Amino acid sequence: MKEFELIKHYFAEQGLTRRDVILGIGDDCAIVQPAERQHIAVTTDTLVAGVHFPMQTSARAIGHKVVAVSLSDLAAMGAEPTWISLAITLPSIDEAWAKDFCQGVFELCEFYNVQLIGGDTTQGPLSVTVTAQGMVPAGKHITRTGAKPGDWLYVTEEVGDAALALQHILGKVEIEERFQADIIKKLDYPRPRALAGQALREYATSAIDISDGVLADLKHICDGSNVGANIVLDDLPISTILHDTLGQEAGVELALNGGDDYELLFTVSQDNKVGMETALANVGVTVTCIGQINTSNKITTTLNNKPVLIDKQGFEHFSGNND
Questions:
Q1: Torsion-angle region of 50 (φ positive above 0: left; ψ -120 to 50: alpha; else: beta)
Q2: pLDDT band at 117 (very low <50, low <70, confident <90, very high)
Q3: Which three-class secondary structure state does DSSP give residue 312?
Q4: How far apart are the first and last CA of the chain?
Q5: Under DSSP, is residue 283 helix (H, G, I), strand (E, B) or coil?
Q6: Where are the alpha helices (DSSP H) in 77-127?
Q7: Where are the alpha helices (DSSP H) in 112-239?
Q8: d(CA 10, CA 297)
Q9: 3-state helix, strand, coil in the chain (%, to 5)
Q10: How far apart are CA 69 and CA 148, in angstroms?
């Protein structure tokens, strides 16, 4: 099977067709028509084998994850996902692998009503790049730069399980066999919080998705907003499995620094707390208040009402300090 046969057989026939896609896969460009009074949010993410996912990751999981991480970026901006383009580099054409990969891509696209409208295929070491686009009402997008002193700091659902799964895969942590499948699913099949992001448009002063770790991503908010923050570690939502596997302190440290959660970290003013919590409950997403924004221009952490120091600041490409 050659390149264009691969595209036609596996990528062009996805079943989903949005009415705002005028021309999809098959020409030099796709043509889309955004709704009136909507701005378009655009994000691009690349996943490289052995860097962003273990080499043994299934094709279906890779397909799911490469879409999920881009939709998570859109969620952090309050955008509704609409279209994606996909560029994939493959060592060779493996039809069984391509079928499973597309299953992962299109399952998520169908769930979020997202259409694949174009892309590219090349030969080389395995990597996948997705450009995702979404629509947000004019003037309603959320950024990293709006946090104010006194705002409350929230996170959706639980954090840390994806990092625990990676530690297990790398042979650094042993997880009870009965819990392994559930934990590895958190790493391989993250759930972008698209509805939560759209609900937060009316309430959040800033937001970011957690890809590099709570501390590292909170620093982006603090730097962008010229504020500081304190995290109450007692309140950080970690799973029972993470707690029982590593203990409270090590579990919290992994949750702060591990990354790959793709939950939303966001800030809300005192006046909007109740409205936000109601809105998120209405879309079935649990949120936890984990701290507060202040004027210190630094991030501090407390445990049992006492200051504690967390050394590592999450995963950063090209920092030279990654384990």
A1: left
A2: very high
A3: coil
A4: 40
A5: coil
A6: 95-111
A7: 161-169, 177-188, 194-199, 214-225
A8: 50
A9: 35, 25, 35
A10: 27
Let me know the angle formed at the C-alpha of 250 by 246 and 166, rounded to the nearest 5 degrees. 65
CA distance 263 to 210: 5
- CA proximity to 312, closest of 8, 301, 303: 301
- Local structure of residue 317 (DSSP, 8 states): T
- Locus of tokens 């992962």: 104
Q: What is the pLDDT of residue 25?
A: 85
Give the three-class secondary structure for 134.
strand
Query: In whole angstroms, what is the distance from residue 151 CA to residue 199 CA?
Result: 18
Of the candidates 308, 300, 302, 306, which has an alpha carbon nearest to the alpha carbon of residue 235? 302
Burial status of residue 39 (CB atoms within 10 A of its CB: 0-12, 13-18, 19 or more): middle
* Residue where the block lists tokens 């966001």: 266
- CA neighbor of 98 nearest in space, from 46, 49, 58: 58
Q: Does position 126 have pLDDT exceeding 80, yes or no?
A: yes
The structure's pTM equals 0.92
DSSP for 35-76, written as a single string: PTTEEEEEEEEEEEBTTTB-TT--HHHHHHHHHHHHHHHHHH
Between CA 83 and CA 33 the distance in angstroms is: 11
Question: Which residue from 303, 210, 211 is spatially nearest to 248, judged by alpha carbons?
Answer: 303
Q: Residue with structure tokens 């304190």?
A: 230
**Integer Rg of the chain from CA:** 20
Hey, which residues does 40 pair with through a beta bridge? 135
